[in-house]
Amino acid sequence: MITVHCLAYSRAIRLLWLMEDLEQPYHLVFYDRTESFRAPESLARIHPLGKSPVIEDDEVMLAESATCLRYLSDKFGQGRHSPEPGTQDHLKHEELLDYVESSFAEVAMNLLLPKLHGEEPSDQAVKAMQKHYDYVAKQLTENGLLFGNKASLADIQFSYLLANLSKMGLMESAPRLERYWQDLQKQPGYQAAIGHAGPMAPEM
Known about the structure:
By secondary structure, the chain is of the alpha+beta class. 53% of the residues lie in helices and 9% in strands. The chain has 8 helices and 4 strands. It has helices at 13-22, 41-44, 65-77, 88-116, 123-139, 153-167, 175-184, 188-197; strands at residues 2-7, 26-31, 54-57, 60-62. Helix 4 (88-116) packs parallel to helix 6 (153-167) and helix 6 packs across helix 7 (175-184). The radius of gyration is 17 Å and the shape is globular.
């Protein structure tokens, strides 16, 4: 059975969402954050970087969320969470799945970190984020998610950052992305995941 090490308010909730979608049993090991909102030392005993998520599957241990999503999808999903291999949509999906943490997250954190410290992000950071908001909006279907109405791995990957940006009131200039986030929250796998591990973003 897959073990998911899940820190509160963390990217690991993405993996619970996928496992719920796949209707696969898993062992959830949950970690509360410290008073300084950091991961506890007990998580560092699982992975040397003290990261979340971490999954264990017999001798396999993985810590990067995109890699974990792909691993779980390959093992259990039979391609249900990505477009058909060999198609342009599949290439687009793979690009977006990596884009979330390689490009989008970096720009998003330039807004989120100042907010966490009670400060306002710089005008430069806001302008950079708007460029990415506009880019993501163009990737979405007219009335649904990235590739229709069912969440793909890339949709699941976007959820954590969108949750935090929305909670902090940082998506007011991106109504299409706010609607996208609202649609993601209606997905049954998301609802089951937060039922087990709590919300992706803390109350401010």
